[in-house]
């Protein structure tokens, strides 16, 4: 044995890892809080309608901002949704009644398979434009809570309400008529 003092082992500083751990924890808690606030905020129902492009099952593109000057009805649906089936014929009938009056319907298929979605469209003889919400980008932008949900956009591109759950007569007409009557300079 020697009488020389042993040098202490060099270990990584714990002073750096604790603040880093706390920072990661705070960031995760912040993301969780942001998500909870967003969910509690519910679907968008007013203000400028978030723009999006819907590519239909036929490959046509509809850009919401390019539909200004028309009333737009955006319906989020899925083939696996029982209450979507309840409103499907009504949506199609209302579309047919209003399509020549400056109203556009857009169907946004939510978390579905293309085969099932196309079968649903065929079953209900749906003729208004429909396309998949790839990556749920559109539904997240509109903060939908589930399906069906229907959003109403005025001619100037402003959201004018949302119907959560299936629509039944005369709910769509009651929303569309006032939007058609609005005058803009």
Describe this structure in words.
This protein has 185 residues and is of the alpha/beta class. 38% of the residues lie in helices and 21% in strands. It has a six-stranded mixed β-sheet, with helices on one face. It is elongated, with a radius of gyration of 25 Å. 30% of the residues are buried. Mean pLDDT is 88; it is low at 32-40.
Keywords:
alpha/beta, 8 strands, 6-stranded mixed sheet, two-stranded antiparallel ribbon, 38% helix, 185 residues
Tally of contiguous helical segments: 5
Question: What is the CA–CA distance across the termini?
Answer: 98 Å
Q: What is the number of strand segments? A: 8
What structural class do the secondary elements suggest? alpha/beta
Unreliable spans are 32-40
Please give the radius of gyration in angstroms. Answer: 25 Å
Strand order of the largest sheet: 1-8-7-4-5-6
Tell me the major beta sheet: 6 strands, mixed
Classify the beta-strand content into a percent band. Answer: 15-25%
Spell the H/E element sequence: HEEEEHEHEHEEH
The portion of residues assigned to helices is 25-40%
Average pLDDT number: 88
Tell me, briefly, the overall form. Answer: elongated
């Amino acid at each position: 044995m020697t009488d020389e003092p042993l040098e202490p082992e060099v270990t990584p500083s714990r002073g750096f890892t604790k603040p880093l751990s706390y920072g990661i924890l705070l960031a995760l808690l912040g993301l969780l809080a942001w998500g909870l606030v967003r969910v509690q905020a519910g679907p968008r129902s007013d203000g400028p309608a978030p723009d999006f492009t819907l590519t239909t099952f036929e490959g046509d593109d509809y850009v919401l901002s390019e539909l200004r000057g028309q009333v737009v009805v955006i319906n989020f649906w899925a083939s696996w949704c029982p209450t979507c089936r309840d409103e499907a014929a009504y949506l199609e009938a209302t579309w047919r009644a209003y399509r020549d009056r400056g109203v556009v319907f857009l169907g946004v298929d939510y978390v579905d398979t293309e085969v099932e979605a196309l079968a649903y469209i065929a079953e209900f003889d749906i003729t208004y434009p429909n396309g998949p919400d790839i990556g749920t980008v559109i539904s997240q932008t509109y903060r939908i809570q589930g399906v069906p949900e229907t959003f109403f956009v005025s001619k100037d591109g402003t959201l004018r309400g949302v119907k959560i759950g299936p629509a039944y007569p005369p709910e769509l007409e009651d929303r569309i008529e006032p939007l058609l009557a609005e005058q803009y300079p």
